[in-house]
Write a structure and sequence with these properties.
There is one protein chain. The chain has one domain. It has 3 helices and 14 strands. About 4% of the residues have low confidence.
């Protein structure tokens, strides 16, 4: 479950780019995440968009047998401003509970500097150093970083980018590189069928990571391969599939359902009639 923030947060922001074509858009995404062939995590995302601002919330929880054995849930949020030239987060944070233990981070962004409004547990008591203020200048939250990459793709560019991120505990670069194209065939895992652009996304660690971690997570390069596609007309590409390796094995995520409500007109991504939804 330690890879969950990297996996889940990538999904929750990708429809926020380039909102000039609509006054208001409400987006709902639903993902299922699999490990060893079993659905282990469900992720639901609600996004509200205006011409110059965005707001989203996301909820994820472990499900099935894994959910009963290893109960975990996460709630995340990010609010910010959109303009033609930049994405500016205002507040961001998350709360999660792993087997009864709470973790909380609330961030504020002002004048190009990220400040911690609330954090539990404190970084020092969590086996890590606190990220100094000079490494919290000129950064964004993970939401803003992914949003910047998606905006570039929606403007016809590749997914190549390097974005500085501060998540309240850690400072790192989110690095994205193009990784070819693919065509997804009929599947009961996702309603999307068709062409995709694949990207390889990596976290380059800078500061604030745990000093000692016997689990093996900190010794690995945190990389995911993401299949991006335009599931609706007039909206940016979204992840329809994601894979990553963990110390315990491979994890794969699928877009299981999606809908967009634009000024009262609702569109829903439907499964082909020849497939059975899983």
């Amino acid at each position: 479950m330690r890879a969950r923030n990297f996996l889940l947060t990538f999904f929750i922001v990708v429809l926020l780019a380039n909102p000039a074509g609509a006054t208001t858009r409400d987006v709902k995404l639903f993902y299922k995440i699999y490990f060893g062939g079993f659905n282990v995590v469900d992720l639901t995302v609600d996004i509200s968009l205006k011409s110059s601002a965005y707001k989203f919330t996301a909820k994820a929880e472990s499900v099935g047998l894994i959910g009963r054995m290893f109960p975990w849930w996460m709630k995340a949020y990010s609010n910010g401003e959109l303009s033609e030239s930049k994405i500016s987060p205002i507040v961001a944070g998350q709360r999660n509970n792993w087997r009864g233990q709470d973790r909380v981070v609330d961030l504020k962004f002002a004048d190009g500097i990220a400040t911690i409004d609330r954090i539990l547990p404190e970084p020092e008591s969590d086996g890590r150093d606190r990220v100094p203020i000079e490494m919290r200048s000129g950064v964004t939250d993970l939401t803003g970083a992914i949003l910047g990459i998606i905006r570039e793709m929606d403007n016809g560019k590749s997914c190549e980018a390097k974005m500085p991120v501060f998540d309240g505990r850690r400072s790192y670069d989110l690095v994205a590189k193009p990784d070819g194209r693919d065509k997804l065939q009929y599947s009961g895992y996702t309603p999307y069928v068709g062409e995709t652009v694949t990207c390889r996304v990596t976290i380059t660690k800078k500061a604030g990571f745990k000093k000692e971690d016997k689990s093996g997570w900190n010794d690995r390069e945190r990389t995911a391969r993401v299949w991006m596609a335009k599931t609706f007309a007039h909206v940016p590409p979204v992840p329809v599939r994601l894979t990553t390796d963990t110390p315990l094995g491979s994890v794969i995520a699928h877009l299981n359902a999606a809908s967009v409500n634009s000024n009262g007109h609702k569109m829903r991504l439907k499964y082909p009639e020849t497939t059975e939804k899983k």
